[in-house]
Design a protein that fits this description.
Shape: globular
Strand order of the largest sheet: 3-2-4-1-5-6
Number of strands: 6
Distance between the termini: 26 Å
Strand content: 15-25%
Radius of gyration: 16 Å
Number of helices: 6
Helix content: 25-40%
Structural class: alpha/beta
Length: about 200
């Protein structure tokens, strides 16, 4: 068993403007750096053994700040934990996107489906869990994974069997979400730890 705490990256200027980032590589703003430090403070209440992150700047920098605050080694970058590719929707204001495509499930030219996001993220989390177990032998390992709102929402939806309103909810920047990974199983422990 591996405990995984998924952290949504800190705020960016595009989050503030309610603009869809997708895989567009937008850095943190100063509030986002504060989000990362506050997430580290919350994470510091328990022991963690390693940190992983999406390679996009906003997640990578959040993970670097958390690692520094908690005294962890530099984050391992995991490309499959990147945000959903939104195709022509990238850069659009959320309200314009919803108006044009109806909701997050709508067909968008060039966009990755939510199902595809979940499949790649689940596979990545199981690889992370195997890596953590390999390093710690049979004992439970606790790791941090810094990723994106769309990825976390798709995993919450999958792990809850669609019973939680995650896909319609806004996840706060720097929010924490705890999962337990066992071979071929991902279980939601807490939907969110409020910061």
């Amino acid at each position: 068993m591996t405990l995984l705490t998924l952290v949504r990256h800190g705020q960016t200027d595009w989050n503030l403007a309610r603009r869809i980032q997708g895989t567009t590589d937008i850095p943190l703003n100063e509030t986002g750096r504060d989000d990362a430090r506050y997430a580290a403070h919350k994470l510091g209440r328990t022991q963690h053994h390693a940190i992983y992150a999406s390679p996009l700047k906003r997640a990578r920098e959040t993970a670097e700040i958390i690692a520094d605050e908690l005294g962890l080694a530099a984050p391992t970058l995991v490309p499959d934990m990147r945000e959903r590719e939104f195709g022509v929707g990238e850069g659009m204001l959320v309200k314009d996107y919803i108006e044009a495509y109806g909701d997050w499930h709508g067909e968008v030219p060039g966009a990755e489906s939510l199902e595809d996001v979940c499949v790649r993220a689940m596979a990545a989390l199981h690889r992370i869990a195997r890596d953590a177990r390999r390093r710690s032998a049979p004992t439970a390992e606790s790791v941090i994974v810094v990723t994106h709102g769309g990825v976390i929402r798709s995993l919450i939806d999958h792990a809850s069997g669609g019973t939680l309103p995650a896909l319609g909810s806004v996840l706060g920047n720097g929010s924490l979400h705890r999962f337990e990974a066992s071979p071929d199983t991902l279980r939601l422990l807490e939907e969110a730890v409020v910061l």
